[in-house]
Amino acid sequence: MSTVARWARSLFVALALPVVLIALWWVLSADSKNYYSPPLQTIVTTFGEVWFSERLRDDVLPSVTRLVLGYTGAVVLGVGAGVLLGANRTLRRLTEPVLEFFRAIPPPALIPILFLFAGIGDTAKIIVIVFGAVWPVLLNTVEGVRAVDEVLSDTSRSYGISGWARLRRLVLPSASPQIIAGMRQALSISIILMVISELFGSFNGLGFTIIQFQRSFAIPEMWSGILLLGILGFVLSLLFALFERRSLRWYHGLRRSQRGEK
Amino acid sequence: MSDPVAAPSTRQPGQPRTALLDVDRVQKTYTGQGRTVEAVRNLTFSVGDGELVCIVGPSGAGKTTLLKVIAGLLEPTSGTVTLDGTAVTGPPPSMAVVFQEYGRSLFPWMTVEGNVELPLKQKKMGKERRAELVRDALEAVGLADAHSAYPWQLSGGMQQRVAIARAVAYQPKVLLMDEPFAAVDAQTRADLEDLIRSLWHRLGVTILFVTHDIDESVYLGERVLVLSSSPTVIMEDLAIDLPDERNQLDTRSSPRFAELRHHVYEQIQLAKHRRGGEPVTGPAPAGSPT
Amino acid sequence: MTTTDVPALDTPDARAGLVPARRRFAPPSSALGLVGLAGFAVLIEVLPRTGLVPRDYFPPLSAMVTAMVDEVQTQGFWDALTETLMGWGIGLGIALVAGISLGLLLGSVEVLRRYTASTIEFLRPVPSVALIPLAVLLFGFQLQSTLLLVVYAAFWQVLIQVLYGVQDVDPVARETARSYQLGPVARLRYLIWPTALPYVMTGVRLAAAVALILAVTAGLVGVGRGLGAEIAVAQSSGAVPLVYGLVITTGLIGVVINLLARALERRTLSWHSSMRADIGG
Ligand SMILES: Nc1ncnc2c1ncn2[C@@H]1O[C@H](COP(=O)(O)OP(=O)(O)OP(=O)(O)O)[C@@H](O)[C@H]1O
Ligand SMILES: [Mg+2]
């Protein structure tokens, strides 16, 4: 098969089912009288009207900004604290049960408490995201740092790679598979918290708007919001997958070669 | 002892070398949770500048432990290691180590080139000089073409050659090698042995080579140190009076090689049964450099 | 902190060659951990009393505990707890059955797997909370609303793991099975299921944790009742110590679920030759 043909074929395989499903939804809902499931056509038209407007700036942008800031904060904090704990056995053992406890708390349950402290402004919402998403990054980083290979570590030492260089050249790359796995979990938690934090007293944002639609029974608008959240989730996970593939190319190659699939 | 080799062995003629590395009454006891292991009891020897010394000993004799102590990676429980007149308290900058586990001593997230270059970057060496050293080192081990590959894309023997190239590029005074060929196939192993001898000739570096393979130790070394089993002492310090030009076929089939090999083999058999605590009644250490 | 909650494909067990054998850590000495816990408890007790943090927002631990002691004597608490656990358990059960059966089906039939891959990749990242308004519209405040969210979130965790697991079947074993003309049932039973089992167990553990998050969240945002709703009520009535008490309670439930899931995982896999060292840790 030529490359073009192969390419066309995999495109077909990828798109076939989604196209069929969307077509089905479109046709079956076309003359839906059901109040709760309006025709897909209506939803799509509404989508354009609702979201390609000042809402993009007034609701979507603030939400996404808080998401990005909160997520970044969680990653930085998680990796930083994780490196610290991973390198210090006593500290790690001392804090382990406490951290496990924090990880086990369903993050949205912390919202009421954090809002007590920080009000309901942007800062509070960002703190909520940081506080909920930091745990998987932190615990995975600890795990990764702890598992740095002994031989590799000795090698680094004997070549005088220490301090900052050791962190940058040895510890972080070696822990990166776990760190990135933690970051992936943190991403979905962050999205959840972005939405939920806006359901608790808020004046703007994606979650806030969608719930407003639902409360005012603006059903097509609500559907368009659900759709937008879905798209947002998809796009972010796509970006993340690209990032992961780039950063962990060596790891997946290493694994394949260890499994004898050179 | 009627062994013909025991008595007459002397140092290589006419080359009184100054001692570069001094290992003095080194003892190492591991203390873990409720368990203490005396891995090395009492080791004293020295290695002259430019020598190639092999250390053989049964498995678990503490060879790795000794090497790590010399490399400054482990602190001895007592005793001292002196390199070039200075006591070793941490990894000295003029020493490079090649570990047995090649698969674990290369950075899998860096290319071959990156692996070889990293220690040089640490030395704050200029870019051009680095590139030159990396190129030369990879060429010397026959991997000039593999510079942009990742270690895990290479075979075991190639990976170990990368580790050797990295050590060579580092331009150490002393090269420590811990059973570097234990996990590669016989043919590759023979090639790598010759590589080590040729590098040693070319670079004039001092090599301390640990192995549990008797043939390998005799084939490679100018001197062979035989260790007892743990807790470890030196059973014998044997000079290898084979010609300097060695090759796998002729050297290994020479009668002298067979004699030396036989002798070391006997010592190792003894070593297995004699622990460090018992008095050493074997042949007096021949050719002791002190 | 033995486990990284990642799809099995990414777990560090894969780095078998990288993990030093001698360095494998003994279970952390729990004594130090207890000291840490105690220290933490003392901290929450003392901090508010010193006035370093506003006591209105952050009552001392004893106040939280007192509030909780009062709370557990009310029927409302136990109803809420039951509601949450039911939402969690039923939802998790549905997600497991659906995820495992669909995963095995899609995973073992190559054509199905290829044609569904993109759809799964699209639907999986859709945040479950996006369904909140829909759930409210469809089911109001009944248990079904909670279930919708729980099932949706937990389902993907299981499905993805099962798909990974089925793909992990050794190609040689696959060929062998084919050459012996094993039927589909025998193939599933002797080839696919044993290989996929570790992944399935990882999926169960991940799904159990996610299910709890959604079961609590549902109540919190006014979908369904349960502990989440109790927290919301306590918050709006200004019963701050109770809010803390309830949050701690959900955390403890989370810890118990994690421990149970890990124990189950370990038990199921103890006979399994590929029991991954890092999970057993
Ligand atoms: N980190 C450690 N903690 C406790 N005991 C150790 C440690 N490292 C080595 N030992 C013990 O010290 C002794 C010597 O070990 P070492 O690895 O130095 O032997 P070796 O001669 O290199 O063996 P081999 O030929 O198998 O590589 C062994 O009994 C070993 O169990
Ligand atoms: Mg060893």
How would you describe what is shown here?
The complex is a heterotrimer of chains A (262), B (290) and C (281). Chain A is built from 11 helices and no strands. The model of chain A has no long low-confidence stretch (mean pLDDT 90). Chain A has helices at residues 3-28, 40-51, 54-87, 89-104, 111-118, 122-146, 150-158, 163-197, 206-215, 219-247, 249-258. In chain A, helix 3 packs across helix 9 (206-215) and helix 4 (89-104) crosses helix 6. Chain A has a single domain, classed as MetI-like (MetI-like fold, Orthogonal Bundle). In chain A, 50% of the residues are buried. With 262 residues, chain A is an all-alpha fold. Chain B folds into 2 domains: 19-94 and 172-271, 3-Layer(aba) Sandwich (Rossmann fold); 109-167, no CATH class. Chain B is built from 9 helices and 10 strands. Chain B has helices at residues 63-70, 102-105, 112-122, 127-140, 156-169, 186-203, 214-220, 248-253, 255-273; strands spanning 19-31, 36-48, 52-56, 78-83, 86-87, 95-98, 174-178, 206-211, 223-227, 232-239. In chain B, helix 3 crosses helix 4 (127-140), helix 3 (112-122) packs parallel to helix 5 (156-169) and helix 7 (214-220) crosses helix 9 (255-273). The radius of gyration of chain B is 19 Å and the shape is globular. Chain B starts with 18 loop residues before the first strand and ends in a 17-residue tail after the last helix. Chain C has 11 helices and no strands. Helices cover 73% and strands 0% of the residues of chain C. Residues 1-28 and 273-281 of chain C have low confidence and may be disordered. Chain C is mostly helical and 281 residues long. Chain C has one domain: MetI-like (MetI-like fold, Orthogonal Bundle), CATH 1.10.3720.10. In chain C, helix 9 runs antiparallel to helix 10. The interface between A and C is large, with 78 and 83 residues. Adenosine-5'-triphosphate binds at residues 30, 32, 37, 39, 57, 59-65, 212, 230 of chain B.
